[in-house]
What does this fold into?
Amino acid sequence: MSLVDILIGFFTVSAIGGGVVMLLARHPMRVALALIATMLSLAGVYALVGLHAVAVFQVFIYVGAVMVFMVYVIMLLDIGDRRALHRYGRVLWPAIAAGGVLVLVLGHLGWRAGASLPPASAGNEGTFLVQPFSAAFLANWWLAFELASVVLLVAVLGAIAVIQGSRRHDG
Amino acid sequence: MDKLSFLLAASGVLFTLGLVGVMVRRNALIMLMCMELMLNAVVLSLVAFASHHGAPDGAVLAFLIFVVATAEIAIAIPIVMLLARQRQTLDVQSWDALKG
It folds into this structure.
């Protein structure tokens, strides 16, 4: 077992630990910090398996943009409401039972899929450099790229519509 | 131990944690963050397959999931802020009017 494998195991366990803290923490800010820790650990995993570009964008887009936005909203909406600090709804035990079954099924499927696939092809170190990655992106996935821009445009228009509708409602 | 099996099993565990979070937590913002955790689990499985096969398509799909997650947050946060302003709470159990 090499150092890279040990580090991958460490980052994966710390990502799962962050997910568990997200379920247990009471205040939204602690949940956000646990999610940030999970995302940074996953970025470490991505970098260690060789996908450096995805790791960089995980840190830039997820932690740098999405989670900073989320933390700002948590601070903005810090309404002193005692009910919001109740952690769990009424379906706690059924949900935990269903989650236990799902984790067994997904874990087993993932384990079996990983074992049944042929072993990794050797000598693919250059596959995930920026140049072949960009070529694959714009040669094979250009339609998805254009559709993503449409999705972002619709999201911006939807956010503006929500805000405008609320203003009209208030006024 | 096989690296692909390990990462896929970890992805299943993370997805389940996010799903249980969406089901049991009562704070709307925490439910949103648990959805982000589910998306991250999917990205982890894509990255594991891409690294195993040595093809960049999985990495491209991971990028597209980043875009979808950003759009989801951009549309979900204004809705949550609107609801929080109407009822002065983030507790989803005070918004159960659709339950009948």
Observations:
- Chain A is about 80% helix and 0% strand.
- Chain A has a mean pLDDT of 86.
